[in-house]
Structures are given as C-alpha cells and as structure tokens.
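User: Let's play a game. I give you a shape written as tokens, and you guess the letters that built it. Ready? Here's round one.
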C-alpha cells in the first residue's frame, strides 16, 4: 500500500523532479515503521544574494497513530552548492533516523529514549 504524500512548494515553482524524489525517498522509508499513515514535505526557498542563490528549507511531517514525527533540514547559506533535491534527500535521512527511533520505542518502550530527550541531550554543551 502506498503511503499518502503531500508535497508543498513555498516560494518555489512546482517541480515534478521534487515530487518524484520525495515519493522515492518515502517509499524507501515505508518498511521502517509499520504504521506510517501519511507524509507531508514542505520545500521552502529562502532568498539569497545574486551570486550564491538561496538556501533551501525542508520540513517533513510523518504521521503515525497518535503522533506526528517532524524533521527540519536547512541547507544554510554556507553550502550554496546544495540544490533542492540534495536538501530533500538530506531531510529524508533525518526522517529515517526519527522513524527508526520511533519504531524502536514501539518495540521496547522502556529502552528507547524519546526523540525530544535525544535532541535535548544533543544540544547540551559537553562537560
């Protein structure tokens, strides 16, 4: 069964290649989580300067029963070579990590840390 996918373009003209890329990446993720219900991908263009172009921001929301798992990826202005397809692929790498973590939590609720706890620990300064 194909998971419903909604791709939204903000400040970017519609591109079939982005739609196909998102579908391909979502299909790769489908086997990781047994209960994925839907996925929304938002591709946003941030304006840059006339020499380097802009940055891309991708927001992915995967819905599973009772929760929404979200991933944000910002290509940033420093890596101006990264195109929109690269940014979408990189965001799906993050989505893969979040889905694996959530699937692990479903299998063994006591052993797997929550996504929020992992993010909080990652943001703490090293001692």
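Assistant: Ready! My guess for every position:
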């Amino acid at each position: 069964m194909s998971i419903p996918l909604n791709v939204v373009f903000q400040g970017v003209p519609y591109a079939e290649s982005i739609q196909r890329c998102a579908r391909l990446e979502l299909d790769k993720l489908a086997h990781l989580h047994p209960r994925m219900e839907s996925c929304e991908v938002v591709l946003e263009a941030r304006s840059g300067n006339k020499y380097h172009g802009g940055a891309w921001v991708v927001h992915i929301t995967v819905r599973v029963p009772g929760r929404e798992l979200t991933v944000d990826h910002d290509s940033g202005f420093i890596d101006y070579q990264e195109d929109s397809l690269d940014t979408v692929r990189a965001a799906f790498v993050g989505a893969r990590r979040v889905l694996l973590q959530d699937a692990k939590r479903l299998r063994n609720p006591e052993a797997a840390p929550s996504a929020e706890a992992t993010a909080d620990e990652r943001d703490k300064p090293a001692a």
